[in-house]
Specification:
Length: about 375
């Protein structure tokens, strides 16, 4: 099947759109249909975004949302499934190709420094000179593992340790304070799904110390400070669940919000969570009361929202199936063959006139009751 078209486009407030119209033309849908690839993950670092897509990694400068710039692209052997940043090294879970380390000290010219193959890399987190890579396959009956990798020398990454086999393949990894939290659900039809807590304080011997089962398939993890959030889906419907990890060896589910649509990716920025809902767009969730998360808005962008990143009130969406919405400020396409679709919105734009809410969408009304 031919991959869906993709592009880079920028959405902001209506006032910003008016300024952009005066600034000159932007790319048209025909300009962007040359690109292809689904954006699986979006990572924000300051005003630079990294998008993991089918053909590799896109690097995007969004310092000026009205004039975004696609700084660079690097092609990889397999579809990039996840990514994490450790200083100037971008650690990429590159599917069947394993783990790839990319030097992004010059974002306009990313370059591969090293790689480690031997297992299907599905998810990754990084801290200092360590990478925590979740192994996972979508094949029914497959299991997974957590690999701890020394990346101090990016030209020669070395595996330090690997956990015992986990009950399902990894879909996401989050690291905090000596523990790796691994979402298990790559083989979606398998009955065992949830979050495994792995003690990695001794990297040579990572040990699973706890497991929390979830009714749905977990796809993404975000948060910190003793509170994690999980984006999940089951049978086409999704949810956001909270996980209290104040005591990592005794985690507990705490906080739940049904979303009605499959939740595939998640980002947390302050007291807000942003959840990619596929064809339904993007949901903003108020986390000010972590035990009772509340739906703030859902915004349809006219495309399929696959990944999401957020920083400082700016939300970036990895999307496909480009259709130009009325609020486009600028659409920028680089010269490489597969730029990611990354919409940039302000937090206020999520609550603007085009946003859906419980007053206008019956599906959301039933969720807010």
């Amino acid at each position: 099947m031919k991959p869906a078209p993709a592009a880079l486009l920028i959405l902001t407030l209506a006032a910003a759109a008016a300024r952009a119209r005066d600034a000159g033309p932007s790319a048209t849908p025909d300009d962007v249909r040359q690109a292809c690839g689904e954006a699986y993950r979006v990572l924000c670092a300051g005003t630079i975004a990294y998008a993991a897509i089918e053909s590799g990694i896109d690097v995007i400068d969004f310092a000026n949302p009205e004039r975004p710039w696609r700084l660079g692209h690097i092609q990889l052997k397999s579809p990039a499934r996840d990514l994490a940043l450790a200083g100037d090294i971008l650690v990429v879970a590159d599917g069947d190709a394993g783990v790839v380390l990319i030097d992004v000290s010059r974002p306009e010219a990313p370059s591969v420094r090293g790689a480690l193959a031997g297992f299907p890399a599905r998810a990754v987190a990084a801290a200092a000179d360590r990478a925590y890579v979740g192994e996972g396959s979508e094949a029914a009956g497959s299991d997974g593992a957590l690999h701890v990798i020394d990346i101090a020398n990016p030209f020669a990454p070395e595996e330090l340790g690997v956990s015992s086999r986990l009950a399902n393949g990894a879909t996401a990894v989050l690291y905090e304070d000596g523990y790796a939290y691994v979402a298990l659900g790559a083989a979606e039809h398998d009955s065992i799904r949830g979050v495994a807590v792995i003690d990695v304080s001794i990297p040579l011997v990572p040990v699973e110390v706890a497991f929390v089962a979830t009714p749905e398939v977990p796809h993404s993890l975000a948060g910190g400070g003793g509170r994690l959030w999980i984006a999940l889906s089951r049978g086409g419907e999704g949810a956001l669940r909270g996980l209290d990890v104040t005591l990592p060896v005794a985690p507990a589910l705490a906080g739940y919000l049904p979303l009605g649509y499959a939740a595939r990716s998640l980002a947390v920025d302050g007291a807000s969570a942003y959840v990619a809902l596929g064809d339904a767009g993007l949901a903003e969730v108020d986390l000010s009361n972590p035990y009772a998360p509340a739906l703030a808005s859902v915004r349809s962008t006219g495309r399929t929202t696959c990944g999401v990143g957020a920083v400082g009130g700016t939300v970036l969406l990895g999307e496909r199936d480009f259709v130009a919405p009325a609020a486009v400020v600028g659409a920028v396409v680089g010269e490489a063959t597969a730029p990611a679709v990354t919409c940039v919105l302000s937090r206020d734009a999520l609550r603007g006139a085009e946003a859906m809410n419980a007053d206008t969408v019956p599906e959301l009304a039933k969720l807010s009751r």
